[in-house]
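queue> holo job accepted (uracil)
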Amino acid sequence: MRLDKFLAEAGIGTRSSVKILLKKGLVTVAGQVQKDGRFQVDKNSVEVCFDGKPLIYQEFYYYLLNKPQGVVSATKDNIFKTVVQLLDKKDFREDIFPVGRLDKNTEGLLILTNDGALGHDLTQPKKHVEKEYFARIDGKVTNEIIDKFATGLTLKNGEKVKPGELYSEKVYESDTQSGWMSEIRIVIHEGKFHQVKRMFEAVEMYVLYLKRIRMGNLKLDKNLKLGDYRILTIEEIESLKK
Ligand code: URA
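queue> job finished
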């Protein structure tokens, strides 16, 4: 790859600022000063130093974001703030994207990465990656409703969904339309558009609050505040790839 690309990906600066640093003679390749950004390097075998310090080439970046409401799961949007705009300047890269989507008013676990293969794998319908959500529902989630979810529902548009595991955690009187509120957890094995909300609509109930708490083996980190993110650990990345 080109030396200027290598340096930019190693986080030294943008392609144009890297040019200036190269001109200053601050970069060595295998011990020789190299001033030409077009110089070809083998990222796996060559030692590139900046200001005397060896650089480690990193191709892929993985972040776990606790998505707040009001931001959209996209890389660009003309109206709303996007999830990639929540990254600090030092972590932002043009090629980072969200893995799958959460609705604008849904909170919780979202992976941001520039690893296209992993993103594709985790969202492929055939892979059935489990997703777990916590939700507050207007109404009483009864055993009858839990059974309906367990056998597989038909959505209002006639589309069938795979069985989902629904757990009712708390039911209490509330000033909702029905007079009741249920707190639930649900595990689904697909990722259809607005799936959780549409599953509840199929049983005439409404989702008032939705938060994703798990994707595959990856759980939402309780220490992450809404809008915050952290780097995924090697173990977490490996477990997502399994
Ligand atoms: N299901 C939904 O309805 N919305 C989401 O954001 C995720 C799952």
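queue> Residues 102-103, 106, 194-197, 210 surround uracil (CB under 6 Å).
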